[in-house]
Every structure is written in structure tokens, then in C-alpha cells.
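Pilot study result, target chain (177 residues):
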Amino acid sequence: MVSALNGADTASVKWTPTGPMPFTATAYSTKANTVKGVQTQPGIVAADRTLLPLGSTIRVSDAGKYSGLYVVTDVGTAIHGRRIDIYISDIAEARAFGKKEVTVELIKAGDNVKFSPETTNTIPKSALAPAQKQDAKAIPSNKVPASTPAVVKGRVVQAQQKAQKKIEEAKEQAKRQ
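Predicted structure:
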């Protein structure tokens, strides 16, 4: 399969697939914030951002009732190369999903920016994989990923604020002495 360089940021994106590609899919059910800055929810996957940029819309086929459209919002410590990790809210279903050989097609490349929820690549709930639609009913927005970011200012800004607070506390303590 031929692939093309993503000229926007060749340091972090090696290439992006130009057609359907074979991938290995697994599932996870951890409720947390993703690298993209949204909470885990139906319709998202973790992928190697050097192959599928963060924020990308992809179509997953051959995944049974989990075949459908997804947005890449996370990476994973074990997600390297042609692997994706599909979010499934029920832990028993995620375990039952196991490991499948699937086909992934890049529909629209994302911006590959961390801590910045994708605003252009959203998926209507009606386009989700059949098994994901039930869980998506609890999501208040009409698009996936949610429009309200879980990481509003990003982890870097939060770390800076925490460091500034410690400096201020140290100054306050020095004044008291």
C-alpha cells in the first residue's frame, strides 16, 4: 500500500495511509482523559500518532458490531505501528473483544495536536458502530468526541500552575519566618 508523507509535521507523523490498511485491534475500558483532551467515550480509539494523527477520523471494518467510524483521540504505551485500541465502556465486553485483525481507512486526517480537542473531525452518533450507539446515548453532545474538553487548559498549563503555586507557598512561608 502506498503512503504519503504528512508535510505539516514530518517529525511526529511519519506517514499516513492512503487507503484501507490491515491493523490489529484490541479494546480498553479505562475511564480517563485522552491525550487529545477529551474523556474516553464511545467512538474513540487509541492509535500510533505517527501513522494515524491525533484527531483523525477513521473507518474500522471487520470488527463485527464494532465496525464503524471513530476519532483517534489517544495513544497508548503498547500502541505502536498498525494497532488500534477501541474504547468500549463495559469492561467485560472489552475483554470479550479480544484481538482482531481489522481494516482501517483514514477518512480525514486530524491536526495531531495534544490537549486540543478536535473541532473539525467529529462523528454524529448515528454514524457510530452499532455496539457503540447504546453507550453514546448517555453523552450529552450530539457529536463524538464530546465538545467539552476534559483537559480544558492541558496538562502542561496545569503543571505550570502547580509549580507557580508552590513558589507562592514557599514565598509565603519565607515571609512568616
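One observation from the pilot: The longest helix spans residues 154-176. A full batch analysis is planned for the follow-on phase.
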